[in-house]
Design a protein that fits this description.
- It contains 17 helices and no strands.
- The protein is mostly helical.
- Helix 3 packs antiparallel against helix 15.
- The termini are close together.
């Protein structure tokens, strides 16, 4: 396996890798921030029925992720596709991702009642299946592109920038259409179509501008006999760092999806200014760019894991402070936007940097198990993120019913307003603390273990 410290990544490689998450997030971001409003205010889905649907969808997605990772490891081990292990999947799936995204936001609006629910169910299944088939090879591609830790860090940062832009652009486009046309099928359909087409272009750039240049890693990943789904359980048993990453994935995605699922309700029903979400998206992107620029410098001085822990604590403290202030006084949409974005950005550092940690965990897993199953590791990590998404989405939707939210009501009750505040501000703080606990007490890759991993690489 290559261990050179000199980076051979070209600018096209870096931009191309960033395009992957940018393209995928152009449609996936809407699934977090805007989809619940689409369900409740356009399709008029009952919140109890919706919670059940979300549970079924996300259970399937959770099972689908590790299965897809194992499938890629096994298929490459068997066929040795000369075009690469991961990139062929990207080209096949990119157009399907675009089409199914558009269908999800448009086709169900032509139906009513039970028929609409059936159509909605399968449109979501198709979209999520295509997203998984794109996301797993896109994420796993990092290890196949990078020849050393420096290149991994570079590609992690590139993906962070791509993810940041991909999550911001849709939330600049759709809220403006909602502000102009209201919660209508036209606004959601046009906004989602624009995002899907833009995302498709970026996905193609991701394919054409990347290269599986780390041939040793590609050959090792799933290259031996005996690659099987039970390897996942071996990793859980022997790899404590991976367990920490799994706990982090559940907590950080729960925090992220509770906040994003209910964000429109905070801005629209509590603060009375849903249009400011476009400004929030721009501000979030600026703060994120600053964070990504500072992270390599800070992590070099204090260590990546320590930096992540500090940011998680800072994010939790910011959320708790915001909740306390909102309980005793009224704040403006602008103040909330700035405060909440800063809190979210602290937590976001762990999201941006987790991809480099996945590659580190993959190296450690190879050392303790003797197998390099990159697709399986990434797919199972995605499982943890799907669990967090399931908890965040389903619990948030159920909670809307519990706190008495009335769709399209001119005003909500005081109890409902308080409930929205707690869900959007207090709950994220709790799950950021959970993620901090994982990195503080479960993660076990010390500098000594890193030295052992480096020595093992040098010996190969």
């Amino acid at each position: 396996m290559a261990t050179s410290t000199k980076s051979g990544l070209s600018l096209k490689h870096k931009i191309g890798y960033a395009m992957g998450d940018l393209g995928g997030c152009m449609t996936f971001a809407l699934m977090g921030a805007m989809v619940t409003r689409y369900y409740t205010n356009v399709l008029q889905v009952d919140t109890t029925i919706l919670a059940v649907l979300l549970l079924v969808w996300n259970i399937w997605d959770a099972v689908n992720d590790p299965m897809m990772g194992v499938l890629m490891d096994k298929m490459y081990a068997k066929n040795k596709n000369p075009k690469g292990k991961f990139r062929p999947w990207l080209l096949r799936v990119a157009p399907l991702l675009c089409v199914t995204a558009i269908a999800f936001w448009t086709v169900p609006t032509f139906f009513k009642g039970t028929t609409m629910l059936v159509v909605l169910f399968f449109c979501k299944i198709l979209y999520e299946g295509c997203y998984t088939m794109f996301n797993i090879p896109m994420g796993s591609l990092l290890g196949a592109m990078a020849n050393n830790d420096g290149e991994r860090s570079t590609l992690s940062s590139a993906r962070g920038f791509g993810s940041l832009v991909g999550n911001v652009l849709p939330l600049m486009i759709l809220p403006q259409l909602l502000a102009k046309y209201g919660d209508t099928s036209f606004a959601f359909g046009v906004g989602a179509t624009i995002c899907a087409v833009i995302g498709f272009v970026f996905c193609l750039l991701h394919y054409f501008w990347t290269e599986e240049r780390n041939t040793a890693a590609v050959a090792a990943a799933g290259g031996g006999d005996g690659v099987k789904i039970s390897d996942i359980f071996v990793a859980f048993r022997k790899n404590r760092a991976y367990v920490a990453l799994i706990i982090h994935g559940i907590c950080i995605c729960t925090q992220q999806y509770v906040a994003s699922t209910l964000g429109t309700y905070m801005y629209g029903d509590v603060l009375g200014d849903i249009g400011i979400m476009s400004v929030q998206s721009t501000f979030s992107m600026v703060v994120g760019i600053i964070s990504l620029a500072l992270c390599p410098v800070i992590s070099k001085k204090i260590g990546l894991e320590k930096m992540v822990r500090i940011c998680l604590v800072c994010g939790a403290v910011c959320y708790l402070g915001l909740f306390a202030v909102m309980m005793i006084t009224t704040i403006s949409p602008l103040v909330y936007m700035i405060w909440a974005t800063i809190a979210s950005s602290f937590g976001g550092v762990s999201i941006y940097m987790q991809w480099g940690l996945v590659a580190t965990v993959t190296d450690y897993n190879e050392m303790v198990t003797g197998k390099r199953t990159e697709g399986t590791i990434y797919g199972t990590f995605n499982l943890s993120r799907r669990i967090g998404q399931t908890v965040g989405n389903s619990a948030a939707v159920l909670a809307l019913g519990w706190i008495g939210y009335q769709a399209n009501a001119a005003t909500q009750t005081a109890a409902t307003i308080t409930g929205i505040k707690a869900l959007c501000v207090l709950i994220p703080a709790i799950f950021l603390v959970g993620s901090w606990i994982a990195f503080r007490f479960v993660w076990n890759i010390t500098p000594e273990i890193r030295a052992q991993m480096a020595a093992r690489k040098s010996a190969e």
